[in-house]
Amino acid sequence: MTSTLPPGLEGNLVEYVQGGEGDWLPFDQKRFYTNAFVIQGDKILMGLKKRGFGVNKYNGFGGKVEPGETLTEAALRELKEEAGIDAPLEHAGSLLFMTKGAGWAFQIEMFSAHSYSGTPTESDEMRPEWFSFASPASGADTMVPPIPYEKMWEDDVYWLPLLLQGRKFVGRVDFVTQGDGFVMTRHWFGTVRSDN
Question: How far is it, in rounded angstroms, from Cα 194 to Cα 196?
C-alpha cells in the first residue's frame, strides 16, 4: 500500500501501518539521536530508563549525537555508556518523533546487532534486561519475560517487530503531553522498498 509520506520522511517506502488523526505537528529542525538493540536468538536486550526523558520506560540504549560524531559512533558510545557492552551495530531504521510545542523533531536512527562483547551492566541511566519475543508455543525459555510493550513508548509495538525481523523501516510519530506522560496522536511506518 502506498500513501503520501508524512512531512519529514523521504525515500522509497511501502506503508506498513498508519493511524491517528489531525494535522502532523510542525517542526523547524531535527536533532539527531540513536537507539541500539542487541538481539540474541529469540531474545532482545533493552533497558529500563532510570532518569530523564522517557523515565520508567523500556527502550534501546541511545541518546544524543555529539558534535563531530557519526551516527554509528554515537550509537556505539551510548551502548557502552548505558549497558557496558560493545556490539557490531548495523543501521536498522529511522524514526522521526515529535512532541507538541517542541518546534524541533527527534530524528532517531535505530541500530541492531546479533552479537556483543562484555557483560550487560546497569548504569546510572539504564538497567539492562533481556526479553523474549518467541511465541509461547515455541517452547522457548520461559524464565525470560516477554517484551513489555505496556511499559514502552506507545509506537514501539509498530516498529519493534520490523527491527526483530531485520526489515529496514522508517516512521514518524506525533505525541502530545497528557498529565505526566505522552499520548500518540498520529503515526506512520513504512518499510524500505528493495530494488530487487
Answer: 5
Task: Identify any residues that bridge with 170 across adjacent strands, giving them in sequence order.
Answer: 94, 190
Task: Compute the half-sphere exposure of residue 43: CA atoms within 13 Å on the CB side of its CA.
Answer: 13
Residue 37 C-alpha cell reads as 538493540
Distance CA 188, CA 186 (A): 7
Q: How far is CA 15 from CA 12, 110, 176, in A?
A: 10, 18, 23
Nearest alpha carbon to residue 123 among 179, 78, 184: 78
State the DSSP H helix or E strand holding residue 96, giving kind and residue range, or none if neither: strand 90-99
Distance, CA of 78 to CA of 84 (rounded, Å): 9
How high is the pLDDT of residue 184? Answer: 95
Measured CA to CA, the distance from residue 101 to residue 27 in angstroms comes to 9
Q: What pTM value is reported for the model? A: 0.92
DSSP secondary structure string, 29-83?
A: EEEEEEEEEEEETTEEEEEEE-SSTTTT-EE-EEEEPPTT--HHHHHHHHHHHHH
Residues 6+ apart with CB under 8 A from 81: 123, 125
Q: Pick left, alpha or beta for residue 150 (phi over 0 → left; psi -120 to 50 → alpha; otherwise beta).
A: alpha
d(CA 159, CA 1) in angstroms, rounded, equals 17
pLDDT classification of 102: cutoffs 50, 70, 90: confident
